[in-house]
Design goal:
This protein is mostly helical and 173 residues long. The chain has 2 domains: 113 residues, NADH-ubiquinone/plastoquinone oxidoreductase chain 6, subunit NuoJ (Four Helix Bundle (Hemerythrin (Met), subunit A)), CATH 1.20.120; 60 residues, no CATH class. Helix content is 81%, strand content 0%. It is built from 8 helices and no strands. Helix 1 runs antiparallel to helix 2, helix 2 runs antiparallel to helix 3 and helix 7 packs across helix 8. The longest helix is centred in the middle third of the chain and has 25 residues.
Length: 173
């Protein structure tokens, strides 16, 4: 077991435990903070998989942006005590998640996994070409070929933030 495997186990355990805490913590603010921890640990897993661009996007967009908006919305909620009461759906949702976990585990265990033969030069060259220029290629696509869609999505996110502030704003102000 090398250092990458140890870090993968650590990030996986952190992601799994913090995701469970997101579901089972009764305090909505602490649950949102655990969501940030989950996003950061998934970003760490992306870094271990040599997907640096996805890791940076995971940490910047999800942990830095989306989770902060969720925390901001939680802080703007007026009646936190009654907004997070337990109900019958909590048990039913837990059963559905357990069933999904068992089915997913069954399929993952029974799948026949094929690994690349990196000794063969053609596979090694394909793997090298796959991971060498990913960030440059994505930057070219986002900032040259798809710049209008990229800018449109940023304007759409800005409109969502302004709309959520308008909904949360008190009517007397």
């Amino acid at each position: 077991m090398n250092l990458t495997d140890i870090f993968f186990i650590i990030f996986s355990l952190i992601a799994f435990s913090s995701a469970l805490l997101v579901v089972f913590i009764q305090d909505l603010f602490k649950s949102a903070l655990m969501l940030v921890v989950t996003f950061i640990s998934v970003g760490g897993i992306f870094f271990l998989l040599n997907a640096e661009f996805l890791g940076v996007i995971q940490i910047l967009i999800y942990a830095g942006g989306i989770a902060i908006i969720i925390i901001f919305g939680v802080l703007m909620t007026k009646d936190m005590a009654t907004a997070n009461t337990s109900n019958i759906f909590m048990f039913i949702n837990g059963q559905i998640c357990l069933l999904f976990f068992v089915l997913l585990s069954y399929f993952l265990i029974n799948e026949e996994w094929f690994l690349l033969d990196l000794v063969n030069s053609s596979y090694a060259e394909q793997a090298k070409n796959l991971f060498s220029n990913t960030t440059d290629h994505l930057a070219t696509l986002l900032l040259k070929n798809w710049v209008i869609a990229f800018e449109f999505s940023s304007v759409l996110l800005l409109a969502v933030i302004i709309g959520s502030l308008a909904i949360v704003k008190d009517k007397n102000e």
